């Protein structure tokens, strides 16, 4: 009896051992991928909490540096009426150079009674107030001014944290790719790497744009001068008469040149008239003789 019981226990253990060995195992990269996704979610949540705490905490300075604290995008719009637009533009050029800025866009218009420059200036964030102050204290008249500050701290820190998380996930997937044993796993991991790389490129583009807007403030300037501020007589009745005479002379000159340019036609016409008259006189003489 004992011998039979021992044999039964032995065969039971053997069956359990064989069934355990035959059970399919999941690829190891699946568990690792889940851990990567969990780390990504936790990192994104931590970034939101950090950005929120940064926004709620009081700022020591009015405009903190972009390297720490709040991330502020500052923009301004200003209209300037100048009595001498050339001198006014020259002063603006000096201010832009003084505060290490540059013109992102520059255009000019000259209509019937108005000359103006449309300018878009990029100024380092720490020189933004000083640049506007120099313009306000200048010789020209400020007709309109608008300054706006936009807090993008949450977006900036969230994008930065997501980028770091995706970069870490990319490294992990590359490690998994090196450990993959079959073609199916390799193709799946490569697809994940491609998707993560696209997200990294997108996040890097957003972060670069934010850094540029934060580091360099944008000022839109409309510098203009009315024709009434120009030299006396530049748009007076006398100048209009002068312009009328100039137009008449130009018109006569054009007509004369056009007449000269048609000289072959005039020569052919003259010859044709001469031959016609000669033919008519000859016919007339013949008819008189008859």
From TrEMBL:
Biased composition (Polar residues): 47-65
Keywords, comma-separated and alphabetical: Coiled coil, Membrane, Signal, Transmembrane, Transmembrane helix
Segments for region (Disordered): 47-69
Keyword Signal appears in the UniProt entry: yes
Keyword hit for Nucleotidyltransferase: no
Signal peptide: 1-20
Annotated DUF4349 domain residues: 70-275
Coiled-coil spans in chain: 186-213
Pfam families documented for this protein: DUF4349
Regions that span the bilayer: 255-276
InterPro entries hit by this protein: DUF4349 (IPR025645)
Protein name: DUF4349 domain-containing protein
